[in-house]
Amino acid sequence: MPVSRRAALAAGVLGGATVLTTGGASAAQAAPSGRDPNPAVAGESDSVRKLRRLLNLAARGDRSLERDAGGRCVVIAPAGVHVLKRPLVIGGNTTLRADGATFTSDVAVKPQTYHKDKNQHSPEPTYPDSFVSVGVVNSREATLLINDVPDDCTGHQAAGNIRLEGGIWDPTAHFVRNAAGDDRARATAAPPMNAITFEHTHHVELSGVTVRNVKWWHGVELNAVRTATVSECRFEGWVEAPTAGLWHGEAIQLDLAFAGITWGGVADNTPTTDIRIIDNYCGPSRDHPGWGKLTGSHTGAAGAVHSDVWIERNLIEHAKWDAIGPMNTSRVVIRENTIRACWGGVYVKSINPNPNETVDIMGNDVTLVDGSTRPAIGVNATNAQLPVSDVAVYANTVRGGGFGYSSNVTFRREPQR
Q: What would the pLDDT profile of 226-282 be if each residue is shown by its tens digit?
């Protein structure tokens, strides 16, 4: 079994002890998981404590809260900078509106160990998540926000119908402001983290969110999620891992509940399906260069294939690897994206142990950097046992790179060359 970047994360229930909240008779009702998902955290500000109480009320469906058009309880984050000492946990049927708020992390960090550097443009893996895990934080708390996941949850059964609007989610900002030394030393002090994580849930929306300066991992991880839309969000700046190939650096990662990379619930290999990634920006921040890629996946288990993914009208600049790189994904449409000054363009690949089918790549405008060795548009079947079938590639504009198709890729129509 490959060693995951999060193989060292310990099992445990997010949420912990129950806390008392204010708010009339409904405050005595149990949350769907049987506990308040946000316990009080020592050392956090009054504004964060209040936000956690409101999220607990929303998880209970408290009648005192406003409802939006989707029937979700609305929680409004106060404006300002909020330093979190553990993740915010959002329950089902909740909208969190965070315009004007910035979230950053001050979690406890285990010592970081650096291993031998890999070549920056090393080949992508033939098996999922095969790089060494280094520098993890405590338990499953390496994220700013996560949904409420019961410990025994499987499939897509955690409470869903969740919406996140706005806010700046910057996991490294607190460490950069407070650590000593130069920029590199300050970035090293920050833990590797996701910004936003959803696990074992369904019907998730993210709109107008800004994710900034994530270290090593992902801006948004959709892990065992069914039906999600990420739209009009900005993914700015990424600190790359010194020991991993750039193929893992997705701003939006499609993952499965695989052993060692499951944030909550059961590692039952549930894949992610029915995903829309539309009208987003992915590029550098003021402080850090661009991501490895806007979106993709690099995990697989037998019969666990990500599927029904739509990637449309995104702008990706200065990606260090392939701007869009689904692996182990079937029924994927990649359409009308603009890719500028990236190392690679659109690259779809089957990985062990599953074949893939039905890939449409059309109307994308791709410009690669000088000297790139990656295709502008590529489809790769790992071997004859892992074919990619029913492929259509047409009407794309490419500069600085060509088209690459491996053997064991079969087409629905004559492909663009």
A: 999 999 999 999 999 887 889 889 999 999 999 888 999 999 999 999 999 999 999
Q: What is the rounded distance in angstroms from the CA atom of residue 113 to the CA atom of residue 398?
A: 40
Among the listed residues 416, 406, 305, 282, the one whose alpha carbon sits nearest the alpha carbon of residue 362: 416
Task: Name which of 274, 308, 309, 285 is nearest 295 in CA terms.
Answer: 309
Q: What pTM was computed for the model?
A: 0.87
Structure tokens given for 130: 């095969």
**Contact at 8 Å (CB) between 279 and 235?**
no
pLDDT at 185: 57
**328-339: per-residue pLDDT in tens?**
999 999 999 999
Q: And the tokens for 126? A: 């033939």
DSSP state of 248: G
Residue whose entry in the numeric block shows the structure tokens 């060494």: 132
* Amino acid at site 49: R
Strands (E) across 171-285 are located at: 196-207, 210-215, 220-231, 234-239, 250-255, 273-278, 281-283
Of 322, 324, 320, 344, which is closest to residue 334 (Cα–Cα)?
Answer: 324
How many alpha carbons lie under 13 Å from residue 247 in its C-beta half-sphere?
A: 26
230, 220 contact by CB (below 8 A): yes
**CA–CA separation, 194 and 172 (whole Å):** 10
**Planar angle of CA 78, 145, 182, nearest 5 degrees:** 85
- pLDDT tens for residues 120-165? 344 444 333 332 233 334 347 899 999 999 999 999 999 999 999 9
One-character DSSP codes across 202-214: EEEEEES-EEEEE
Q: What does 107-143 look like in DSSP terms, one character per residue? A: --BPPP---PPPPTTPPPPSSTT-SPP-S-BSTT--S
Q: Residue 79 has which token pair?
A: 């404006």
- 338 within 8 A of 311, measured Cβ to Cβ: no
